[in-house]
Amino acid sequence: MDIELSKTDLEFQAEVRQFLSDNAYKPGEDYNKWRMNWFATAAAKGGWDVPKWPKEFGGPGWTPSQHYIWEREKAGKNLPWDLPFGIGMLAPVLMAHGNQKQLDRFMPDIRARKVIWCQGYSEPGAGSDLANLQTKAELTEDGKHYIVNGTKIWTTVAHMADWIFCLTRTSNTGKKQEGITFLLFPVKQEGVEVQPIITLGGAHTVNTVFLTDVKVPVENRIGEEGKGWTYAKGLLQHERTGLAGISNSLVALAKLKKNARSIIRGNGTLMDEPAFRSKVAELEVDLHALEYTELRSLANAAAGSDPGPESSILKLKGTEIQQRLAKLTVEAGGLHAAGWGQPVGPAFAHSGMQSYLGSRAYTIYGGASEVQRDVIAKNVLGLKKKSSEKTRTGKG
Amino acid sequence: MNFDLSEERTLLKDSISRFVRDNYELESRIKHSQSSKGFSAENWNSIAELGWLALPFPEEDGGIGGNQIDTMVVMEEFGKGMVLEPYFASIVLGAGALRRGASDDMKEAMFEGVIDGSKQLALAYAESQARFDLHDVVSSAKQDGEDFVLNGNKCVVQNAETASHIIVSARTSGGQIDTDGISLFLIDVNSEGFELLNYPTVDGLRASEITLTNVRVNKTGVVGEVGAGFEILQAVANDAILALAAEAIGTMEMLYTDTIEYTQQRVQFDQKLSDFQVLQHRMVDMFMEYEQCKSLLYRATLEVVENREGAQRSVHALKHLIGKAGTFIAENAVQLHGGMGMTEELRIGHFFKRLTVIDMQFGNSDYHLEKFAA
Ligand SMILES: Cc1cc2nc3c(=O)[nH]c(=O)nc-3n(C[C@H](O)[C@H](O)[C@H](O)COP(=O)(O)OP(=O)(O)OC[C@H]3O[C@@H](n4cnc5c(N)ncnc54)[C@H](O)[C@@H]3O)c2cc1C
Asked: Which of B279, B282, B334 to mutate for ligand 1's pocket (most ligand atoms within 8 Å of CB)?
């Protein structure tokens, strides 16, 4: 056991720092131009624009410790905005299950951030029980198209998206998980209606997507008909490991302390008040532990074995930590954190409230915490469910 | 021993409950919240006509002679609809200070209008640097002949935007955190040098930042004795905490009952969410926290009304638990509603936001735990 970074890792760390500072946004610069340049420069470094992609698809082929270094170094820096749906969710499915034509057609635009994708999984009746999805896809008689009908809900950025990757039902026989088919189609077309859902605090990021007789060419199906669940499950794992947000939490914790120190209390600051201080300290303890939980998981991956039980803990604990950080920031803001519409009091108080409201979703999407605990109980601890096990896999 | 409400108070509770049910559908609340005043003038008139504004005033001042128990009844029901009308700001805070400190002339000039709703009060006690300390006051009031001249800033003053008169704490002597030397002034909002920056708060209510620049107040505008405003403030703050806690209790009740109802309807994995034991236990915990808060509310309210030893400590305990349990109940109500809990469409999220703000008002959970332990 040791935790030293090797000489090559240290060199890599220096290179990452250099890269991030050389390409940082300069005030006054055209943002979009900078953003596109940033990705192009990162690509020229040898796949730094798609760190998690494997080498054969243009990724950098980093070792786990290099990934770790990248995550830590970029946290808190002003990187160009990016969405996980194309790069982080669909691309891995395409790599694993797409045919060459699909790879050629979709991968370059995903990589260049030219096309915005959204994820059409959840439905009104299929949230945690995703396999219960009912959006129907029927093959036309000539076998050339699917006709898709149904409703997707909570679809993040559907109102901005060009394309959607969508789970549909092509068969009702057998288990719920069978008969699910993975389709890709453009959002801006006849039969697709996107309706905003306003979430706490007035933000519009999620939508309901109504699908009425949407015509999807069979070439846009990933893999085999009826096997979509298997493909999607792999994707969910990608989604979950990305959600722990440990690097960002470390940055957020440092900010929280700095902000709390800016609140003067008598001869000290808010960080000297016992109750607040001990809550921050407890949070830091949990975060320090989780940092090593992540490292243990990375080490397993480096050794070529399965991510191990540690990885199941990451999403659960990581999101809870993010929520506590947001809550403590609100508490630090004091009375002014109530201000809305226009910032009053310390600047962090206002953004803190926004983060707090938004953070409540972290333990709901990407596998709600309760369901995540079920997964750990079953897959890690080997605890079997009795009665519900049957209904879970029973027919839908 | 008996914790039942008297017949009169039961009638009061029923009529307020009906008012809230009839007027506080989420849609109406949102509409009124976004209107120019931030509440409904019509509702405010009804509340006045029904006599609820008169409740805590002594009979000799044209009131009904109620006490904190009556306010508790009102606020608990208001909490179930997140009522927007400035009952708390005008009747509990503003009038609370006047009831304790106003001269006979001031009472004469103010009470009738406050009770019929034509005058509206607010209390400007908080300052940015003070966090939750009522005695941390740097706004100053300097005597100049018959007048006091006020300078300084006040922050997050609830419902100041529509108030006709605002009671402002300012220092007439002493250092920044001395309890002595704080005075309260009744100020007409149209006074020269009195400036408001109005904004909505996250819970759909309204607040203002106030700047005082050489605001002149005649010495007859002092509420209570010069330099002795802190005692009044502290008593008003206790009333405020009891009222906010009662409101929170109403809000918590809605959150846990809505959650029970929702989980009994929502089916996932071919069963009702309410059939999952882990969710049952969570709802049991929410319910228990609610009941514990209610017990402390009764304890603190009765001890304050009966002026018992230990009342102050119970008020601290209450506000601590309201903050802590409120967070637990609100966060879990959202969690158990899944994505639906995150929408503005359900009232769950609105209750969540209100409880979050209640925790900050008059000292948060940590603040009062510390005072309780001290
Ligand atoms: C902000 C946001 C963005 C989202 N973005 C997307 C997106 O882009 N694409 C997409 O497809 N979906 C998206 N989702 C949907 C998300 O995946 C679902 O909300 C999630 O799967 C939970 O489903 P639900 O909302 O229907 O809640 P439900 O499944 O109804 O769950 C409600 C509650 O019951 C609990 N519960 C459910 N089953 C069990 C059980 N077996 N045992 C114990 N407890 C249980 C849950 O943990 C939760 O607390 C998003 C959601 C949010 C809030």
From this structure: B279
CB A172 within 8 A of CB A134: no
**Domain housing A72:** 7-82
Could you give the CA distance from residue A236 to residue B243 in angstroms, rounded to a whole number? 47
Number of separate helices (H) and strands (E) present in chain B = 12, 10
Q: Are the beta carbons of A157 and A118 closer than 8 angstroms?
A: yes
Contacts of B199 in chain A (CB under 8 A): 339-342, 344
Kindly state the tokens that stand for A363.
């333990």
CATH number for B343: 1.20.140.10
Distance A323 CA to ligand 1 centre (A): 17
Q: Give residue A242's pLDDT band: very low, low, confident or very high (50, 70, 90).
A: low
Cα B177 versus chain centre, distance: 24
CA A154 to ligand 1 center in whole angstroms: 9
- Give the tens place of pLDDT for each residue, A113-144: 999 999 999 999 999 999 999 999 999 999 99
CATH number at residue A208: 2.40.110.10
Ligand 1, residue A157: give the atom nearest the CA.
8
Do B110 and B136 lie in a common domain?
no
Per-residue pLDDT tens digits for A62-111:
988 898 899 999 998 989 999 999 999 999 999 999 999 999 999 999 99
CA-CA distance, A363 to A369, in Å (whole number)?
Answer: 5
**Residue of chain A minimizing CA distance to B366:** A275
Instruction: Determine phi and psi for A240, rounding to 5 degrees.
Output: -70, -45
A135 belongs to a structural domain: yes
pLDDT at A389 over 70: no
Report in angstroms the alpha-carbon separations of A153 from A215, A338, B2, B81: 20, 30, 51, 28
pLDDT computed for residue A309 by the predictor: 67
In a domain, A393, yes or no: no
For the cut 50, the answer to whether the pLDDT of residue A168 exceeds it is yes
Taking 50 as the pLDDT cut, the residues of chain B under it are: none
Give the CATH number, domain containing residue A336.
Answer: 1.20.140.10
- B357/A275 Cβ within 8 A: no
- Is B335 in Cβ contact with A364 (below 8 Å)? yes
Q: Are B13 and B82 found together in one domain?
A: yes
Residue A390 pLDDT exceeds 50: no
What is the distance between the alpha carbons of residues A81 and A84, in angstroms, rounded to a whole number? 10
Q: Specify whether the CB–CB gap between B78 and B91 falls below 8 A.
A: no
Place of tokens 């309204």: B206
Same-domain pairing of B365 and B237: yes
In sequence order, the 6+-apart residues with CB closer than 8 A to the CB of A342 are B199
Q: Is the CB of A133 under 6 A from ligand 1?
A: no
**Six token digits for residue B58:** 């002594």
Give residue B252's domain range.
Answer: 231-373
